[in-house]
Amino acid sequence: MLFDVHTHPPRDKSLTGVWLDGLSRFDARALTSELASRTAGWELVPSVDHWREANEICAEIVRAHPDQLLGYVYVNPAHTAEALAEMERRLLGEPEVFVGLKLWQAVRCSDARLDPLMEFCAAHDVPVLQHTFANVGPTGAGSGNAPGESMPEDLRALAARHPRVRFIAAHFGGDWEWGAASYAHADNVWVDVSGGEALGGYMATALRYVGAGRILFATDSYGRSVPSQLAKVMGEPLPDADLERILWRNAVDAAGPRLPAAWRTHFS
Amino acid sequence: MTDDRPSRLPRLPDPPAGGYFDASSTLGEWPSRRLNGSPPPSPTELVARRIVHMDRLGIRRAAVSSLDAVWLKDSSVANAELHALVRGHTDRFLPLYTLNPIFPSAADHLKRCTDEHGLAAGHGAIRLYPGYHVYALDDPRVDACLERIASIGVPVMLTMQLEDARLHQPAMRVPDLLVPDVLALCARWPAIRWIVSGARFAEAQGIGRQLPPDAQVWIELSRVQGPVDAIPTLCRAAGAQRLLFGTNTPLHLPEAAILELADARLSPEDDAAIRYQNAARALALTHT
To answer: How close A231 comes to chain B (CA, Å)?
Structure first.
């Protein structure tokens, strides 16, 4: 049994069944976000129309598979008023569909423009999945990032400003050694193991810096496979209790009280 | 591997009949990350631990190169060390000796492999790291080296990449090889048995789709870790007969390759072909 906190539907919707079957083979339920519109792919700086349409696509898929999927609302934090309205509409109006907020690469997450959104999340117990990745470039870790792409240190700063919000650090910071060091003392940040390759030393580093209580299983499927990401956890000898925490129990805590009762029962 | 975990916890599959032949693994240390524990074990201890780990996972035999050879300028030193380490374990390891074709003594290095380490068809292969040793695949020195390799009939493993280039140590950034360059090299030397190692899904798919039917080219799968159903998709694109189970241990976790293949839901024939049978043909082995 798995609780996968980070997935995306395939861009080619004819592959949706392949993706869902891939999750089912591992008895996985998943939180998902759509970053594409009906006419455009994942845009680094999406327009209001783009992310609204993405959320509608996400809602359609989740409504069709309520026992397997729950959604994240996706917005561009630069559109403060529109983003807050969408969060209210989706998160408060459709709690059976949307459970959290997903932020990608439009704005670095240490930016003050995120603060009104985080105040909403704190008030309504909304977990926040924030993309973080330290792409190596010519001047070191992070210098290969897109302009709005967050480093782990950006999320650490945001989490410190909003201690009542539960954050999920996507991809463990990409460069997971960099991420581990960044999140070691950020107690309201859970790290998700999604994306990237199953590299030697991954889980040992995560356990040493962050501990089993703040590690979340995740895949970034459809683009990544479930087995490759599961190997990051299975490749380390772990007590059953820690394995359960990482594979589903921590995710229940991170999702918080917004998690539907049926899901809570499933993972109890 | 037996596993008595509670039923709600996932488990590794039991080793299937025939086990696995790991077409791509390494022994040694890596400059930017401890891969074998801290402090690192002695080379002899490392081999002993690797065999235990292989036994646990059902990996009967592994093609293995020296990880140190990737960064040593004189790779012949690492080749000699590799030979000393694995010569007592030829039932478990098949040596892949590293050559840098543009190194001034590349010809001497190859001669040492044959004369001193016993390299011959069925008894090992040559491994190339063009990205790490920084040469173009159309460099005339590469062709000169390949002519010598072809004359002794040993396979060549061509390394596209060893680990995700986005995570490289900042002072040691190494680009992936490009699919058209790989295809051109393999086409230029059709008599050589090529194993393309470290390709990601899209690269493997691109290579597999464009190979002529009679090409002696195999694709090792250690870095194929998505999308969902990547291996069945590659079987359709390239044919199961071209795919090789590989782990890239210890840079990658071998559990990923095992779980990925188990999730592929292949026919028993295709599954066995990828797990170990294709390796025999690719590496000119009489047994795996």
So the answer is: 5
Question: Which of B26, B174, B228 has the most A C-beta neighbours within 10 Å, making it the best mutation to test the interface with A?
Answer: B228
The residue count of chain A comes to: 268
CB contact under 8 A, A19 and B228: yes
SS3 B127: strand
- pLDDT number for residue B1: 44
The 3-state DSSP class for residue B94 equals strand
| Pairing, β B194-197 against β B156-159 | parallel
Contact B167 A136 (CB under 8 A): yes
Show pLDDT as tens, one digit a residue, over chain A (268 residues). Answer: 999 999 999 999 999 999 999 999 999 999 999 999 999 999 999 999 999 999 999 999 999 999 999 999 999 999 999 999 999 999 999 999 999 999 999 999 999 999 999 999 999 999 999 999 999 999 999 999 999 999 999 999 999 999 999 999 999 999 999 999 999 999 999 999 999 999 999 999 999 999 999 999 999 999 999 999 999 999 999 999 999 999 999 999 999 999 999 999 999 9
Q: Is B164 exposed, middle or buried (0-12, 13-18, 19+ CB in 10 A)?
A: buried
The CA distance from A242 to the nearest CA of chain B, in Å, is: 11
What chain B residue is nearest to A22 in terms of C-alpha separation? Answer: B228
Among the partner-chain residues B166, B226, B258, the one whose CB lies closest to the CB of A224 is: B226
The pTM assigned to this predicted structure is 0.96
Q: How many CB pairs under 8 A join A and B?
A: 129
| ipTM value for the complex | 0.96
Chain centroid to Cα A103, Å, comes to: 8
In three-state secondary structure terms, B10 is: coil
Phi-psi region of A107 (alpha: psi -120 to 50; beta: other; left: phi over 0): beta
Query: Cis omega (within 30 of 0) on the bond before B227?
Result: yes
DSSP B204: H
Q: Which of B6, B223, B263 sits opposite A197 (nearest CB)?
A: B223
- In this complex, do A136 and B170 lie within 8 Å of one another by their Cβ atoms? yes
Across the interface, which of A137, A198, A226 has its CB nearest the CB of B228?
A226
Mark yes or no for CB contact A224/B227 under 8 Å.
yes
Q: Where are the alpha helices (DSSP H) in B104-253?
A: 106-115, 130-133, 140-152, 179-188, 201-210, 230-238
| CA distance linking residue B193 with residue A199, whole number of Å | 28
> Cis link prior to A147 (omega < 30° from 0)?
no
Contacts of A243 in chain B (CB under 8 A): 5, 9
